[in-house]
Amino acid sequence: MNKALRIWSGASVIGGWFLGAANLSYAQTVCQDARLTASDDGVFENFGRAVAVSGDTALIGADWDRELGTEAGAAYVFRRDPDKSGTWVEMQKLLASDQQPGDEFGFAVAIDGDTALISGLQHIHEGAPGTSAVYVFRYNGSSWMETQELLASAGTWGDGFSFSVSLSGDLAVIGAPSDDDAGTNFGASYVFRYDSKSETWVEEQKLLPPQRRVGVRRLGGGLGQHRRDRRTHARQRRGDFRLRLRLSLQRLNLG
Length: 255
Prior knowledge:
By secondary structure, the chain is mainly β. It is built from 1 helix and 18 strands. The protein has a 6-stranded antiparallel β-sheet, with no helix packed on it. The protein has a 4-stranded antiparallel β-sheet with strand order 5-6-7-8, with no helix packed on it. The chain has a 4-stranded antiparallel β-sheet with strand order 9-10-11-12, with no helix packed on it. 42% of the residues are buried.
């Protein structure tokens, strides 16, 4: 069984996509707190393929959901009851505005507060197959709404853009593990930053691994973020590759 793990403020969601369920637990008790299933989940729709949690909100991908066609995909938002009873309730099913069969929407997900990123790994954009896309959703106080579609400025067919996604505040990193700019399948990651003036996400930099470095492959195959303060300890892990990108704003001179 393939599993994905997201941790935020002590809560974790473990997705078992083959079983079509996600198990939610708390690190403090180290026991299962809830088993989440989609209200309309079908056989082999991969519910739990990707999972992320932020506070009392969980985001779960089902990249083979068939509502909009074979392997079109979907993502589900669950929220914990305000009374802290531990009950998690399905809040909304998310679909992309230009979604097509085969897009695998929900292959990778990330969430931070009122913002969510959802991958459309096989999305065809403007007739360019394989270019993929990442969709930005924001919570407006009553529902989650799609606000933007992120694309790679220097992407080509088969780069795997949106294979992994990571989000922290106004910074998003999107993996393209099959990018060839630094060498065959060396991979790359794209950094996007939210511009509050234009209220849009703007691509800021494309990160590449060192060229000709032995053993370097598939940068962007898995993205992680690590935040630590007095109240929050968060880590996100993603992907079948065991390579994780740890982003340092000081070293990259982005902040």
